[in-house]
Write a structure and sequence with these properties.
This protein is an alpha/beta fold. The protein has helices at residues 12-16, 53-56, 63-82, 101-111, 125-137, 156-161, 168-179, 220-229, 248-266, 286-290, 296-308, 314-338, 366-378, 383-397, 401-411, 417-428, 445-451, 472-483, 485-489, 495-503, 506-521; strands at residues 22-25, 45-50, 61-62, 86-90, 116-120, 142-145, 183-184, 187-188, 233-234. The strands form 3 sheets. It has a 5-stranded parallel beta sheet with strand order 4-2-1-5-6, sandwiched between helices. A two-stranded parallel ribbon has the order 3-9. A two-stranded antiparallel ribbon has the order 7-8. Strand 7 (183-184) and strand 8 form a beta hairpin. The protein is globular, with a radius of gyration of 24 Å. The structure holds flavin-adenine dinucleotide (FAD).
């Protein structure tokens, strides 16, 4: 850190000049060097970045998440200084750090005799509310600018979809048309909007997943600072070889590696699970996107160009683009249309605590052991692991969605509430009563067995529904259907499962209920 990193004593350069500076706050997920702010260098602007306990402590985070965000912030500060900008950086272990963004801002305003404060619209309600509260009583003008990152403004999806029931596919098609992505005139390229049906193959060992070419960073000094400051984290810090991109150049290199090696197979194996494989053909780009080292437009444009160049099939490219142009923008719309309050939803009235092994990975269930183990080790699991393994189990077991939400918000490298909460509470736990997902993503062992090979490495048998070796997903699935029978009976897609349950004889139903009860009683030992 340079000497410019102190909040106090007085800033010599500022004292010499009669300039009252404008402070521009850069949050930890606003690390976009292409933001219009940086187009010109101004002597009267001081960029402010701060590491605060308020942000490290609102849930317990994976160590890699805190390290990667702080390391990328420090890199951004260095690069801004190198480009001639003025920067104030408040490290986590500085004695003068007040550990709240508002309190630090207030101190800096006084200390530098600032003329105004500017900030980019935060993506999370928590920060948005804190900054609005501070601005309302701040003794100087406070201006807000857009982060210039997303395709749509925060209320863009709400304006597009209006009060009717939101359907992601409708939104996605409108996005394709509006931004001219994968279009051939007025029609979708290849004659179809959606290639999902082609994208559901399990992976059987071929082709080999691409090598992980991400750079490794020694961030042990930041880890030491976190220890000094007393920040509590979880998971493996990998502080001597942190595998996440810390600046735009590294993020772009990762994007290019994905396009070259993984994108061609992304679609086919998008829903696959595989023992010993932590990412298969997924991009690992969510961290870079969410802290804004990459722009969604450029990722989408590069993927589309790969199809035009004949490098990747349309089904793969469409599947990938849908995640970014569709899902990512859609969940942000859901979040901002329903906050505050969205995170308190619990439509199914689930109350059970998460099994203890969500924090250790120590369970005999092979799929859960793999997903949780790699999460604690690497702060990453791909979508199907999050949705159909950890999420599915928590849903079937009736775990408290607020606790499930805190778990997901803490453990993943890419977890920011605007994207995590709709995915967890809406898509995965159905806690919002179907605002996000038309049907709950609940399945028995059959789905897990079809999409992967974990069952071959598991103590439990996916074919058995009752007995000591029965896979717990089976009885829990039918118990979930039975527990919420009234709700599902009239549901267009779950009604079929209620009818299937009703066709089982009374003994089978009793045995399934008893098995589920026993499973839940001993859930910590599974
Ligand atoms: P890829 O599979 O390569 O997909 C490419 C990109 O598309 C991702 O980087 C991401 O930016 C975007 N994307 C894909 N799916 C979604 C989605 N459902 N919603 C929004 N964007 C999506 N994603 C987060 O970014 N942060 C989270 O905190 C988060 N929490 C989740 C919690 C649950 C319970 C579930 C089911 C999903 C969650 N997701 C979250 C969505 C998705 O699982 C991750 O974006 C994805 O696994 C990140 O890995 P990747 O970069 O390799 O993605």
């Amino acid at each position: 850190m340079s000497t410019d990193d102190t909040l106090l004593p007085p800033d010599a350069a500022m004292a010499d000049s009669a300039l009252r500076p404008v402070l521009r706050l850069i949050l930890g997920d606003q690390l976009d060097p292409l933001h219009p702010w940086f187009a010109e260098r101004r002597d009267d602007v001081v960029y402010v970045l701060m590491e605060v306990r308020e942000e490290t402590d609102y849930v317990r985070h994976h160590a890699q998440k805190v390290l990667a965000i702080f390391a990328a912030m420090r890199r951004m500060a260095q690069q801004l200084r190198a480009a001639g900008h003025r920067v104030r950086y408040v490290p986590i272990d500085a004695a003068y750090n007040r550990h709240s963004i508002a309190a630090n801002l207030q101190a800096l305003v006084q200390h530098l005799n600032a003329a105004a404060v500017e900030y980019q619209l935060p993506d999370e309600w928590r920060l948005d509310a804190a900054l609005r509260r501070w601005a309302a009583t701040a003794p100087l003008p406070v201006r807000v600018v857009d982060s210039a990152h997303f395709y749509l403004p925060r209320d863009g999806a709400a304006r597009l979809l209006g009060p009717r029931r939101w359907v992601m596919e409708t939104f996605y098609r409108a996005q394709r048309r509006r931004f001219g992505v994968l279009m051939s005139g007025n029609h979708p390229a290849g004659g179809r909007w959606n290639f999902d049906a082609d994208n559901r193959e399990p992976w059987r060992g071929e082709p080999p997943p691409p090598p992980d070419t991400r750079p490794r960073h020694d961030v042990r000094p930041i880890w030491a600072a976190l220890q000094r400051a007393g920040v509590q984290t979880l998971g493996n810090p990998q502080a001597d070889a942190l595998p996440w991109p810390l600046d735009r150049a590294e993020a772009l290199a990762q994007l290019e590696a994905f396009l070259a090696y993984a994108l061609p197979h992304f679609g086919r194996f998008q829903d696959a699970l595989a023992h010993g494989q932590t990412r298969l053909f997924h991009s690992l780009l969510s961290f870079a996107l969410n802290v804004k080292l990459l722009r969604p437009h450029e990722v989408v444009a590069r993927a589309e160009a790969a199809w035009h160049a004949g490098h990747a099939p349309l089904a793969a490219v469409e599947g990938f683009i849908r995640q970014i142009l569709g899902w990512r923008e859609y969940v942000r719309g859901v979040y901002w249309a329903h906050m505050p309050g969205y995170t308190a939803h619990n439509a199914l009235g689930h109350q059970r605590p998460l099994p203890r092994w969500y924090w250790s990975g120590e369970t005999h269930l092979a799929c859960l052991r793999a997903a949780i183990g790699q999460t604690l080790d690497g702060a990453y699991a791909h979508h199907i692991q999050r949705l159909m393994v950890t999420g599915n189990f928590a849903l079937l077991a009736g775990c408290d969605p607020a606790e499930v939400h805190r778990w997901y918000l803490g453990v993943y490298i890419d977890a920011f509430e605007w994207v995590e909460a709709p995915n967890t509470l809406g898509m995965s736990q159905w806690a919002d009563g179907g605002l996000m997902a038309t049907k709950p993503y609940a399945s028995s062992a059959a789905y897990l067995q079809r999409m992967g090979d974990h069952c071959r490495h598991c103590r439990y048998d996916p074919k058995q529904r009752t007995g000591e070796r029965a896979c717990p997903f089976n009885a829990l699935y039918w118990d979930f259907v039975a527990r919420h029978r009234e709700r599902w009976a009239a549901h267009p897609r779950m009604g079929m499962m209620v009818r299937q349950l009703d066709r089982m004889d009374a003994d089978t139903q009793r045995a399934l209920r008893a098995q589920a009860e026993q499973t839940l009683q001993w859930v910590d030992t599974l």
